[in-house]
User: Fold this.
Amino acid sequence: MADMTADPLGTELGACARGDRQALKRIFDAEAGRLIAIAQRIVKRRDLAEEVVQDGFIAIWTKAHQYAPERGSARGWIHAIIRNRALNMLRDGNREDLLSEDAIQSLQEADQPESVLNAWAALDRTSRLRSCLEGLDQPKRQSILMAYVGGYSHGEIAGRLSLPLGTTKSWIRRGLASLRECMA
Amino acid sequence: MIDLTRPDAVADDYVLGLLEPGEMQIVEAELERNAALRRAVAQARERFLPLDMTAEPAEVSRALWTRIERNLQQQEPPEQRTEAEPIVANDNRSIQNAGFWRVTSFAGLTASLALAVALVWNLTRTAEPLVVAVLVNETGEVQAVVEDFGTERAVVRLLADVSVPRDRTMQVWTLPSKETGPVSMGLLPQARSARLAPPSLPTPKDAQLYEITLEPAGGSPTGRPTGPILAKGFAKVTR
Assistant:
């Protein structure tokens, strides 16, 4: 347990695993706002993003005993729960069903949704991820950002970038390989 | 198609959400026992985390916590929680070695499975197992039948000759839930049919995984399967 003190969220997860609801509340107070925003980038609608976070916190509570530092940072683990729920919500339904008319229109105007552009614009300029993504060709970078930030599938990315599906897949694969190498 | 010999690439696709739902399930099952994949997923999450941190925190309504709290009341306390979903249900691909089961033609197995199950019925008229699992090897031949009686009692019947090296032992495993991971039911030191006294486990379920692996003499040093899978199969509830 000693090494978990370096990760305050990890300490809170440990308390959740022991049945301490106040610890879950503390995670909620500190993180819910950002988690809603992360989910909303994927599911687009605010009400659905809240639903993701609501279910996500129940999952964090029930799975807290599974968290161990070997699974990465507690933050990464918590974000993964939220991201997976948002992605499942998308994949279960038809993406277009999740969008209001306005949103569909605004999405059609740009090949990249605003949330993806904003994430790129706001990405810490001193971060390793930033400099490694900058080293990629534009379409590779764009595809990877669309997948991670917006939760777009291979097919959706290909459609938006007007590229054949096979090309899109291989660009993403090669882009991710370069990124791993760059960040290693 | 996921290639588990490249955990870094699989981890990236998993973390980015680029896998098909079926592939995602395989990766999640594999994560339970594959430390290299767990490490790769942890690293991939950390690599992309700075993008999450660019999300401008939204206003949080008080009502959201109230709804969460209400749902929490309906949850059992963490210690008594049981996991109901069979994670590897009907998935023919091995969770240890992706290529292992793909060659198996399960259609061709029906006859031998029926035979094996009938055999078990006849042998165990006096006591009724809760589940029966017919274990097959990678080419789909029936190797063994596990009858799990659920009360720390199970019987393994070997139906094929297996040559076991002197310094190795067959070990029987089951996967009661994703959370617990694989649990040893016992060893088959004589390489022949045996009664086992497994630890107290949740009541065996339909589609629960059973398998026999080849481990160092005395059993797996880690408490988890480490050796090759000799045979594997999913439980059927006896009716």
Observations:
- The first helix of chain A runs from residue 8 to 17.
